[in-house]
Design a protein that fits this description.
two-stranded antiparallel ribbon, 4 strands, alpha+beta, 3 helices
């Protein structure tokens, strides 16, 4: 989320950011955090055939916005959730979504499967 800091004093924001950096630095030192960056509040949404529609984004109608990401190496989803539960921002209303990273997108998998089936059929 992007508004976790609302209602906090400058000193409180500094304290939380210090905790956040310490948490992330600890994950890096343990070899768990591979990357992490904040996302800007501006952007564009491209849709339609040939990217014909471009509107201001990200997703203005959304109640929640993605404020950034952490790429964590975990043995499984349970370990990733355990790591996410330690995020200092949670105490201030931040929301952490935990999702596995796919080796390839679903469309690529479907295309590969279709190609294999065509080859098997001698086409």
């Amino acid at each position: 989320g992007t508004n976790w800091h609302e209602g906090l004093s400058p000193a409180e924001i500094q304290r939380v950011m210090t905790q956040w950096r310490a948490w992330f630095n600890g994950l890096q030192a343990a070899g768990k955090a591979k990357s992490g960056l904040p996302l800007m509040n501006e952007g564009k949404v491209v849709t339609g055939a040939d990217g014909r529609f471009v509107v201001d984004g990200p997703f203005a109608e959304s109640k929640e916005a993605i404020g950034g990401f952490f790429l964590i190496e975990a043995a499984n989803l349970d370990e990733a959730v355990a790591i996410a539960r330690q995020c200092p921002g949670l105490k201030h209303g931040a929301v952490v979504e935990v999702r596995p990273v796919a080796e390839e997108c679903d469309m690529a998998q479907a295309a590969r499967k279709a190609e294999t089936e065509l080859e098997g059929a001698g086409v």
